[in-house]
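Q: I'm writing up a methods section and want to include an example of the input and output format. Could you take the sequence below and give the corresponding predicted structure tokens, formatted cleanly so I can copy it straight into the document?
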Amino acid sequence: MKRIAIIGGGIGGLTAALSLRQFGFEPEVFEQAPELFEVGAAIAMWPNAMRIFERLGISEEIIRRAGTIEQVCWLNSKGKQLNSTRFPKSATPAVALHRADLQSVLLRALPSSSIHLGKVFQSFQQEGREVHARFVDGSRICCDLLIGCDGLHSHVRTQILDDSPPVFRGYMVWRGTTAAVPRELNPATAIEIHGRGQRFGLGPVGLNRMGWWASANENLWAINAQSAPLEQQRELLTLFAGWYAPVLELIEGTPSASIVKTAAYDRPSTREWGIGSATLLGDAVHPTTPNLGQGGCMAIEDAVVLARCLDKYGADAEGLRAYEKLRFARTKAVSDYSRVYGSLGQWQTAWAVRLRSVALSLAPQAITRQLLRLIFDYDAYRVSI
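A: Here is the clean output for your methods example:
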């Protein structure tokens, strides 16, 4: 049995472990946190991800905890509808749920003995066909394959690529979840609201809750600016004063301590994902701005394609290079699309905002649905390897 070590116990790392077990491997997950408690707010699981969870046998449990999304609407800041699109009918739903709920489902599907907590990765070294990894606590492991799933600021990536830091895209993002759901919002509907250099999105996340996100253009210095949770909430209420009423209701109804503020980052795509018997997966290699809700979905797709390649080509460097080659074009296209869409969404001059509103209102549904299909219809279990 090949020894496979996964560095990082987030959504991508846990899905990779579950996918590999489906093909007969017995991977071990090494997570730096002393407890696996997923911070953050809601996460969208579009059909391309849910199709994978169906094959892994956990989709029904996810759906029980999630909110179903059947259509998306675009509004201006006053609540006037610019356009709407109902998702193509499919046996596989689009859903959203809290990250902690998704993580708990994945954890229960894995043997507890395969999850190792409090393991802060330090470095690895290839010695012959083996990989020797060292952790901050002084412990070491020896494995045949090392998979870096340790996120945007990946330490595994630093050793493999030694490249520049991720790129700040000029805006901040806030996220929250609340049980205070405004009555006028339509069920099973995701809404994106556009203003001048600001956006607000919302949608059902299951268990009678609503998830939301907000974005606003800010300078680079704001990335490290720290503010108390209550101040963040007040900041948002000031930024979105005068907007569509449910926006302010959702912000006010969210516990201030649960609001998460992050900067929008991604990286230029690279063809080099690994070296020797080590590779990367998810945000560690192709972090994506949050505009399409595809960051987690891309990691989930990675997990299945990786497992299939190791099953077909062998759990060695050949299998890793096949996986990397197969995933490059798909992840680059989604990352680029998300970056461009976010850039357009953050336009703030008066003429640009008017142009965007006109373009949105005139966009035919047929074109919008076709663009959605390019993302939603991907099936990681059917892609030719």
